[in-house]
Amino acid sequence: MIKIGIGLLFSFGGLYLAFREIELDKLSDHFAAASVEWVVLAVLLMIFSVWIRAIRWQALLEPIKTVTMRPLFSATAIGYFGNAILPMRLGEILRAYAIGKENPSISRAAAFGTIVVERFVDMLGALVLLAIFFFIYDVPPVLQQGGVLLAGLVAGFILVLWWLVKKRQDWIEKLENAPRSKHGFGLKFRGIFNSFIHGLAALAEVKRKGLVFFTSVLLWGIYLVITYLSGLAVHETLTWVEAGVILVGTTMVIAVPSAPGYIGTYHASAIFIMVQVFGREETGAQAFALVNHAIGFIPLVLLGAYFFFSSSIKIRDLRKLDIESVG
User: Fold this and answer.
1) Handedness of CA 275, 279, 280, 283 (dihedral sign)
2) CA 326: distance to chain centroid?
3) Rounded CA gap, 275 and 282, in Å?
């Protein structure tokens, strides 16, 4: 509950910073003049990105089990829905739960391990983009410091994953020999841990590594285009470098606690970059932040909600959703 409260405080603080000086008449004029065709194209690209994520996940899961695209697409969308309505990014656990529910032969813990690997790949991509766009554009010190923080998080994440995979046999043996792992919850936890580690280690066994690399690059390319189109939609035309700086800068808010969907923290970071870094007018920056966030939030929530309510998962399953549920 404390983490949830802190996240809400950051989100409310972000919303205050983003919209404390709002001129509703000017903002409504921006929306009235918005080019809907660019919004529609950006929404279609966002939905397409879910399909690309499902393709990459299929490659990551292959060492465990070959899965067809439909359940992967469905589970990925459900994960986005979970992240939008559940705190602390529990949508990732819901995603593993959904694929395990659809394919009982897949351990949910192993599936969750591949999702962790996927997020690791995403973080590497963010780090590469950060190095490129922050080198090209002279960003202010606060963004440079955020970049250093993100780099530190990625480096720490890499070390933890490497250590877990490298020492996995030692951990497995310790758990097997521990008296408390012979029965009850200890036995269940041992099974979950073994499957989770297997999912982490699956990256080394992935045969289609080229596909994982290509889809990762394609995903970041899609997000860059969506950022650019969001600017066109509200007539705040960005250069591709500016779109890249915004993409990287808003991605860095993953390190900040927030309400689901990065509400508030995203808006504050996007508006700060538009106004303080690019010198754009504040109302235009607010319009851009609202549109860009909505494009990346509303379609995925609706898509995920459709698959969630079409699945065998029940609302009551969300109440008991925790790390144990991936077992």
Assistant:
1) positive
2) 19
3) 6
The tokens describing 220, both together, are: 């970041």
One-letter-per-residue 3-state SS of 66-109:
CCCHHHHHHHHHHHHHHHHHCCCCCHHHHHHHHHHHHCCCCCHH
CB 230 within 8 A of CB 286: no
- 3-class SS at 226? helix
Please check whether residue 291 is in contact with residue 34, taking contact to mean a CB–CB distance below 8 angstroms: yes
- Do residues 260 and 84 touch, judged by C-beta distance below 8 A? yes
Helices (H), the chain: 2-19, 24-32, 36-61, 69-85, 91-102, 108-136, 141-166, 168-177, 184-205, 209-233, 240-251, 265-272, 282-310, 315-319
Structural tokens at position 109 = 């813990």
72 is written with which tokens? Answer: 């992967």
Q: d(Cα 41, Cα 294) in Å, to the nearest integer?
A: 13
How far apart CA 211 and CA 59 sit, in angstroms, is 7
∠ CA(109), CA(172), CA(209), 5° rounding? Answer: 55
Give Cα separations from 40 to 30, 35, 45, 226, 285 (angstroms).
17, 9, 9, 10, 20
pLDDT at 286 over 90: yes
Amino acid at 283: T
What pTM does this model have?
Answer: 0.86
Radius of gyration of the chain (CA): 21
The mean per-residue pLDDT over the stretch 55-61 comes to 95
d(CA 205, CA 207): 6
Query: Is it the case that residue 205 has pLDDT exceeding 90?
Result: no
DSSP 39: H
